[in-house]
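Notes from hallway chat w/ T.B., transcribed later so I don't forget. T.B. wanted the structure written out for a chain they're using in a teaching module, and asked if we could keep both sequence and structure tokens in one place. Agreed to drop them here.
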Amino acid sequence: MSGPAPRRRRRRPPRDPDATMTLVAHLTELRNRVAKALLALLLASAVAFWWYEHGLGDFIRAPYCGLEPELRYGGDADGGCGLLITDVFGGVFIRLKVSLLAGAVLSAPVWLYQLWAFVTPGLKRNERRYGVGFVLVSSTLFALGAVLAYVSLSAGLELLLGLAGDGVVIALTAQDYIGFVLSLLVAFGVSFEVPLVAVALNAVGVLSYEALRRSRRWIFFLTIVFAAFVTPTQDPFTMLLMAGPMILLFELAIQVARLVDRRRARRDAREHFHDVGDDEASPLDVRPSALDAAPSRLDADPAVQPADRRTASRG
């Protein structure tokens, strides 16, 4: 008696060479990409939830615990510090908030890849190249902004809490402090992305170098106004700390736009078809030139021998 027949593996459908998909197929792929990104976020958040009691919480409290003893609740010369919790669920919400944010950072390679894999089939080859660079640079800028915010956090807290003067007991709640730290990290990280938007608009031909150069003063002024509104503390120290690097990044973006426009102008002068889309045929002139309008003497007289043709051509 023979055993059960082996199960045949289900073959994947062949890949469409034209990269065309129906609306239902697009929605199905989007659902799968979002599901994978959410799964990675949940797993990373679970790791961060465990990590909170094994170093992450101390890392977040370090700028506050590094202040002078009179500026922190329960502070003493031995470095003790404490944050108040005023409700029953405060500790749970704090830990969840930190875990979700840390999970989003830890799982960033996964959900960025899912986003990139969903968008890539609709891009051209040069757009894919720019997209990879944009993702890498944007991630680096966000990390640099968050690091700058964390490094300057102790100085900002010392300045702000020191303005309370003598005779005041400073007791920060855990919700206020951790919310302040997280909002400051996100604000600095996002603000460092803004100059990259100008580079991206210039790369796709929407914003030119001349427009950026003429608007340089207004850009710097609006950068300071933006920093004044975005910083959670609203103090001049944090505002200038954010506006200074942003102005430098905007100046770097202007110079990058200058190089991109110069290279684009050289390419356009060489190709002469810069106004034609990638999906359109080049407007070649197929009309005969003046030399081909009338037959030459050699073509008109078939009696001319080859040797005579060479002699006539030399003449």
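Follow-up for T.B.: The CA atoms of residues 126 and 132 lie 10 Å apart. Might be a good example for the class.
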